[in-house]
């Protein structure tokens, strides 16, 4: 059978947040004949392996913490059985699968043709799609969007420089308080698996020399993601990449090829969905070191506060979590250019302060806001 050739106005390669939104708007709002191609599951990193399953898992952990904390509030609550991981995982996976279906129905509602397969550019206006059964289709398009996202990065070291030192130090101390053993400034050199037991041995080097971790049950690389561009055919279309392999695109998503655009994680500007290190951590704008680098130390003033959230007042000292906030301000008017918070409720309170910072709020604007008492958020408008 001869290869099938399809034509459209707009071809979207990648079915994550950026690709789906663009495809639906192009077709549903502007009436552009659009085809969307995704090789894995619709929804991208966020829905399938990122913020959605992470937040659901965090909620389960929060319930476990609440059971532990309930004793401080006078409850006699004991877990009657171990946590049922299989039940939880199956239910979480079913929820994600339902979201995949919703995304596919939304594409249909906006008259976007959806193809499940792997797309590779063969020219500036053409791509070859390998379907699940191994057959191939050629798609010709006037315009092409590359929104293929990223994949887990194989580690080269220990990252963390993108967080404000206040956040780094506090999270590190909290991990250690909870019993997490941290091997700082370490580089993994070799991973070995015992085929009989399934246990892992991690070889690493740090400031003390070479060492090993033995009898490791599972290993998770959680150090960022790399652009998912292997096999995408960028060279055939002449699309330029930077030294990290990310597609180079300007603020309007233009690549160097006039018919090809790119957005999302694959261009490496801001990989939203936000910070995955902890649900109780938030960051807006510049960290202190970035602000000093950009504007000079003499033009930067920082406000810091550290306190015990009201939730923890009933608990023993060893059970109290940290709460720390920081404002990074610029110039004599003290425009807020960075806001960093760590503690209970951070994820929920951050959105509103993000709007304020984006609108150019100053420290004076924060100070003039009536504090809602008793809350942790009030500390951000009463800092001295």
Note down, in words, how this protein is organized.
The chain has 384 residues and is of the alpha/beta class. It has three domains: 4-153 and 225-267, FAD/NAD(P)-binding domain (3-Layer(bba) Sandwich), CATH 3.50.50; 165-216, no CATH class; 276-381, Enolase-like, domain 1 (2-Layer Sandwich), CATH 3.30.390. The protein has nine helices and 15 strands. It has a five-stranded mixed β-barrel. A hairpin with a 4-residue loop joins β14 and β15 (335-342). α1 packs parallel to α4. It is globular. Mean pLDDT is 87; it is low at 157-161 and 273-281.
What is the topological layout?
Layout: E1 4-13, H1 17-28, E2 34-38, H2 44-48, H3 51-69, H4 85-109, E3 113-123, E4 126-131, E5 136-146, E6 150-152, H5 165-177, E7 187-193, E8 200-206, E9 209-216, E10 225-227, H6 234-237, E11 260-262, E12 281-285, H7 288-295, E13 300-307, E14 323-330, E15 335-342, H8 346-358, H9 363-367
Helix pairs in contact: 1-4
GO cellular component, one term: mitochondrion
Domain FAD/NAD(P)-binding: 9-161, 163-280
Cofactor: FAD
Question: Summary?
Answer:
This protein is α/β, with parallel strands linked by helices and 384 residues long. The chain contains 9 helices and 15 strands.
């Amino acid at each position: 059978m001869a290869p099938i050739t399809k034509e459209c106005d707009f071809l979207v390669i990648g079915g994550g947040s950026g690709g789906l939104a663009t495809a639906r708007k192009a077709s549903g709002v502007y009436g552009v004949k659009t085809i969307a191609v995704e090789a894995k599951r619709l929804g991208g990193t966020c829905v399938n392996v990122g913020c959605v399953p992470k937040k659901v898992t965090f909620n389960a952990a929060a319930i476990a913490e609440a059971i532990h904390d309930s004793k401080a509030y006078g409850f006699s609550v004991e877990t009657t059985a171990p946590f049922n991981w299989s039940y939880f995982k199956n239910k979480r996976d079913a929820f994600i699968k339902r979201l995949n279906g919703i995304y596919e129905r939304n594409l249909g509602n906006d008259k976007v043709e959806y193809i499940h397969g792997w797309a590779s550019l063969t020219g500036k206006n053409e791509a070859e799609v390998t379907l699940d059964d191994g057959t191939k289709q050629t798609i010709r398009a006037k315009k092409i969007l590359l929104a293929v996202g990223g994949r887990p990065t194989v580690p080269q070291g220990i990252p963390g420089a993108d967080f404000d030192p206040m956040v780094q130090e506090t999270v590190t101390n909290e991990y250690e308080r909870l019993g997490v053993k941290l091997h700082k400034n370490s580089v993994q050199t070799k991973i070995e698996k015992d085929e009989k037991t399934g246990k892992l041995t991690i070889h690493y080097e740090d400031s003390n020399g070479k060492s090993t971790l033995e009898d490791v049950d599972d290993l998770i690389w959680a150090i960022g993601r790399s652009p998912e561009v292997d096999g995408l055919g960028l060279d055939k279309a002449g699309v330029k990449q930077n030294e990290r392999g990310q597609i180079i695109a300007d603020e309007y998503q233009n690549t160097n090829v006039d018919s090809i655009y790119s957005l999302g994680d694959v261009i490496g500007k801001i990989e939203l969905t936000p910070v995955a290190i902890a649900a109780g951590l938030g960051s807006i704008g510049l960290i202190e070191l970035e602000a000093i680098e950009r504007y000079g130390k003499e033009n930067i003033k920082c406000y810091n506060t550290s306190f015990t959230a009201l939730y923890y007042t009933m608990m023993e000292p060893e059970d109290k979590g940290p709460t720390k906030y920081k404002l990074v301000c610029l110039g004599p008017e003290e425009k807020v250019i960075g806001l960093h918070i760590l503690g209970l409720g951070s994820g929920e309170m951050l959105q509103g302060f993000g709007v304020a910072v984006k609108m150019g709020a100053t420290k004076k604007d924060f100070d003039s806001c009536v504090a809602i008492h008793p809350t942790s958020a009030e500390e951000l408008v009463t800092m001295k």
